[in-house]
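The pair is quoted verbatim as follows:
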Amino acid sequence: MTEQTMPNGKPGRDRGDLIGVGGVWLAKWSLILVSVAAGAWVLGWIISALWVVILPSLLAIIVATVLWPPTKWLMRVGIPPALSAATSLIVFFLVIGGIITLIVPSVVDSAPELVDKATQGVSQVQNWLKGPPINLQDEQIDNAVSAITSRLQESGTAIASGVFSGVSAASSILITLALVLVLTFFFVKDGPKFTPWLHGFAGGRAGRHLAEILARMWATLGGFIRTQAVVSFIDAFFIGLGLIILDVPLALVLATITFLGGFIPIVGAFVAGALAVLVALVANGPTTALIVLIIILAVQQLEGNVLQPVLQSRSMNLHPAIVLLAVTGGGSVFGIVGAFLAVPAAAVAAVLIRYVSEQADEHSNEASQAELEELAPDPDELLTDEEDDSDEKRKSDQDAEKS
């Protein structure tokens, strides 16, 4: 390596050597990024190939986090693990079946009325478009309606083909549900035995880390699901109550959709709210739709600014931008199922990253993020010190002028 003498007399390095070091650094990190991208592609290919097994397993784990607290309580009172798990599972599916039984008749009864109201609403919109100040011609309106109809038909065909291809890939919906049922039973029944087995299988040191990571992931996932359930129930209750008071059709159905949409952060609440406003507009008119919109915005503001920060701070710590990117990415790759699983997956990944960071801080000489925050000066104190220095300088200048 060539050394040169700087103008100030200090030894320096040749410019070519510095550029060469930068080139080596850039090549090394480019190779790392390419390797990570290739690994991500291989992982995605494996997930796609094994999706028929992975999807029921993930859904079973999520259901197991919901059923574990009541199952654990049943075990504590002396009921055998198998009977406790079976009881929790049966009650869970009875509740789901009861909700579906309540919703379907309401949809069937209200569908003809909504179709008639929608037809009337379309006619009103057409008459409004024909009048001032827009003054559209019948031909223009017909062309726009034809374009929208064609687009909806294309979307419906794509959705139907996606649904049927997904069903064929998973053999059938019934087989997938059966796998979820069986796997959930074993996860809840034998879950406490898994961590000791993993600890012994992986060995003392590695087993300790794996057991700790899995325990944190389980706690985070369970906390997220229960928190979302509480927040979604509160949203659905107040929005559904407002819809009932305003006599909006399908109030119970819309409340249920709001509850389910709460498990898909940001996107789910927007879609459920837009659907409720649309039904109110078609069935009851613009005034009722505006009131429904105000109710939804008020409830969602209460949820976003009060409930979620308080409840989710105990279960997971994810920035809203990470949540939005996770939902968008999961939805674009795996559809509605991917959007539903995106945030739990991101929360679990965050647990792993935090644990690795903790271990790195513990075994390195660098200060952790928490320690750096403690060592960092208070901005208010810095401002106070700067103001004091400015006052002292101002006084000294005044004394100099007087003298």
About this structure: The chain has a mean pLDDT of 74. The longest strand covers residues 3-5.
